[in-house]
Design brief:
198 residues; alpha+beta; 5-stranded antiparallel β-sheet; two-stranded parallel sheet; 2 helices; 32% helix
């Protein structure tokens, strides 16, 4: 016991040193982290709103449990409205999911979705932002009507382009559900406010 007490100062000293190193690293990299987040947001907006050249953030009325919602009016090179981008966040299976949803000029169709920040399970839930021939989950949203909320189905959804049915990622139903809930929240809360900003 005496040996433990005599050497406990070493554990405390190491804890203080590592805490100071972590704090210094975070402070030193904070600007780079913010710049990377802005770049990811800009790339996502370009991906989900075709033809966007510039964007303007607009003020919206917060009406609900939305968290970190930002709405961008997307313009082409001539300053004409081409659509809307909404950055929104909500709970995920492990932690918060932040995504960008693109809406058409009238807000009546989704032009795409792009998750930009999440910690979903590698190999399963992280497929919410993978687009390839084996995983088409995020591609299902593009071109869909916003007239009705989306519904998630575990079985294969065929010819669903004109419906509100979304096929879940196999083995990642919860992650699929959480993304869909964020998108439905954007449609319910934000879409009605877009007309006054055209």
């Amino acid at each position: 016991m005496k040996k433990f007490v005599d050497e406990s100062w070493l554990v405390l000293a190491m804890g203080v040193v590592f805490a100071a190193l972590l704090a210094a690293t975070h402070t030193g990299l904070n600007d780079r982290i913010k710049a990377n987040e802005v770049e990811a947001l800009n790339q996502a907006i370009e991906e989900v709103v075709p033809g966007v050249e510039t964007k303007e953030q607009i003020e919206i009325e917060e009406t609900g449990a939305g968290d970190e919602t930002a709405v961008y009016k997307c313009l082409d090179a001539d300053g004409n409205l081409v659509g809307w981008a909404v950055q929104a966040a909500g709970p995920g299976f492990i932690d918060k999911i932040t995504l960008v949803a693109g809406l058409s000029r009238e807000g009546d169709r989704l032009t795409g979705i792009k998750p930009i920040k999440h910690t979903e399970t590698p190999g399963l839930g992280n497929k919410i932002d993978v687009k390839d021939e084996l995983n088409f989950y995020p591609l299902q949203y593009a071109g869909r009507s916003t007239a009705a909320p989306f519904e998630l189905f575990k079985e294969r959804v065929r010819d669903a382009k004109d419906t509100n049915r979304i096929e879940a990622i196999t083995g990642a139903t919860y992650s699929s559900q959480y993304v869909m809930e964020i998108v439905n929240d954007v449609i319910t809360r934000i879409r009605p406010q877009l007309a006054e900003h055209r």
